[in-house]
Amino acid sequence: MDDAFDNFVDQLQSQIDEETRRDFGEKVYQRWKNPCYLQIINDPHGYAKQTGTCGDSIEIYLKFENGVVYEAGFQTDGCGPSLVCGSYAAQMAMGKNAAELMDISGESILEELGGLPDENEHCAYLAAAALQSALEDYVSRRDKV
Ligand code: FES
Question: Is there an atom of ligand 1 within 6 Å of 44 CB?
């Protein structure tokens, strides 16, 4: 009974993996399985949470040293693609200064991960919006000091 159930679960997982690979491509699939930068950063210098019209949220955490991002993290309560897009947004923020961060957009995230199906493109725009808000938070705090 247990073996049959385990086999069923394994088969189901393989099927889901195969469909995800087919629909989203290898690069997105790999990040989906290993979403690096999925972390909460304590005392971030820049933080924002954005909620999309789909109802999902992405949070971005940034820490700066000498004006560049040295630590980045994200959280999401959303779909698989939001996990991938948040992860890429955090990765793309690493090592960048404020001016360079402004260039990270939904388009550049989509380009970096090799595109998404049309119905999931908004997930990249949500990740970019969260990143840009976290940057604004950083700049407004920095300018107050
Ligand atoms: Fe809402 Fe992807 S469906 S962020």
Answer: no
SS (H, E, C) 63-103: EEECCEEEEEEEEECCCHHHHHHHHHHHHHHCCCEHHHHCC
Q: Which residue has the tokens 């040295």?
A: 70
Q: In whole angstroms, give the CA distance from residue 45 to residue 142.
A: 8
| Mean pLDDT by groups of 10 residues along the chain of 145 residues | 87 92 94 96 98 96 97 96 97 98 98 95 98 97 84
Q: Pull the structure tokens for residue 13.
A: 């997982």
- Provide the Cα torsion 121, 122, 127, 132; round to 10°: 120
Q: What is the CA radius of gyration of the chain?
A: 17
Ligand 1 contact via 35 beta carbon (within 6 Å): no
H helix and E strand count, the chain: 6, 3
Asked if residue 106 has its Cβ within 6 Å of ligand 1, the reply is no
